Amino acid sequence: MEKSSVSRMGHAVMGQLVAFEATARLGSFRAAADELHITTGAVAQQVRLLERKLGMDVFKRQPRGVRLLPEAEAFLAKVQLALDLINEATRELSAQRAASGSRALTLSTTGAFASRWLIPKLAHLSEAEPQLSVMIDASNAARPLHGVDAVDMAIRWGTPPFPGCHVRPLFLGSIIPVCSPNVKRQYRWRSLNDLAHGAPLIADSHDNWSKWFTARRLDATSSVQIFSQTSLAIEAAERGLGVALAPEVLIRGALASGGLVRALDPDQVLDTDGGFYLLTGSEPDAGSDLGKVMAWLLRNATDSNRSS
Fold first, then answer.
1. Which of 17, 31, 55, 110 is least surrounded by CB atoms within 10 angstroms?
2. Which is more confident, 243 or 11?
3. How many secondary structure helices (H) and strands (E) does the chain include?
4. How far is Cα 285 from Cα 283, in angstroms, rounded to an integer?
């Protein structure tokens, strides 16, 4: 397999393996969802994507759960070994940081923002601030910034105000319709009205298609396949399932590589009053670890906006 193909496979494979392992160990999508703090549908979707990637089923679906197929038992053992190694490495690193008197800062954000923008840049943070350690908590569930189970900072899509938080904007912006090059060559849509009538549409939990059609007073008849997470909706578009609406910052890399293209000619966007914001419980001191990570994030967001 070519290196570029492996790279394209890697965006969500870790989440798929975690969902697979939990489902196999617990015997149902529901139990795995409870353990992973995501929806049952999200677990099932991750497993389906993994099965599609493997070219085979790994479970037999039953009325009361799932059963691991014999041909997938060796695969499960290796996945569990790999996850155990990752957990062990994480514990060792955390212990080393604790022994040195430093602490990993926890940043909560969505899976889509983590995989599509943040993770590719984290190596640069290590180069710029080698003494800092950041743990990424990727989930659609909003973590608190105060009190029990609080995180140090969060990056969330939303609309101000955010009560009780120190807020800095990262990416304000537009959402654009995108699809795979093959899908665009097949259909050649010209207007939003074209997408409203007969186009295969992909949505996430934000339901932006309905908002856009309503704003344009269009009575849409197109079928919509809904995913619980934006990252899954984007991956579905990359795989040719239809047209997804996604924040432009999350699909810049895919547009640059040609994995995705803008679905409409000429380009059209859904302007929103939302955006990705950086939130902390209070304004940190500039010289603190939290202040340094915040400054780094803001610089990188500014650079990304300038280059877009």
1. 55
2. 243
3. 13, 11
4. 7
Q: What is the pLDDT of residues 14-53, one digit of tens each?
A: 778 888 999 999 999 988 887 776 778 888 988 998 999 8
Q: What is the pLDDT of residue 299?
A: 93
Tens digits of per-residue pLDDT, 216-262? 999 999 999 998 889 899 999 999 999 999 999 999 989 999 999 99
Distance CA 21, CA 76 (A): 7
Phi, psi of 163 (to 5 degrees): -60, 140
What's the confidence (pLDDT) of residue 2?
Answer: 38
Reported in sequence order, the residue ranges of 85-189 that DSSP labels E, i.e. its strands, are: 105-109, 134-138, 153-158, 166-179
Mean pLDDT of the chain: 86
Where, residue-wise, is CATH 3.40.190.10 in the chain? 101-166+276-307, 172-274
Residues of the chain with CATH 1.10.10.10: 3-78
- Contact status, residue 243 vs residue 263, Cβ threshold 8 Å: yes
CA distances (Å), 10 to each of 6, 13, 167, 168, 255, in order?
Answer: 6, 5, 32, 30, 17
Which alpha helices (H) appear in 145-288, and where do they start and end? 181-187, 192-196, 208-215, 230-238, 252-257
CA-closest candidate to residue 244, choices 207, 198, 216: 207
Residue in the structure block whose two tokens are 């080698």:
130
Q: Taking the model in full, what pTM does it have?
A: 0.66
For 3-78, CATH gives 1.10.10.10
Listed residue (85, 92, 47) closest to 66, CA to CA? 47
Where does 216-285 have alpha helices with state H?
230-238, 252-257
**Mean pLDDT on 52-65:** 92
Gyration radius from the chain CA atoms:
21
CATH 1.10.8.60 fits 101-166+276-307, yes or no: no
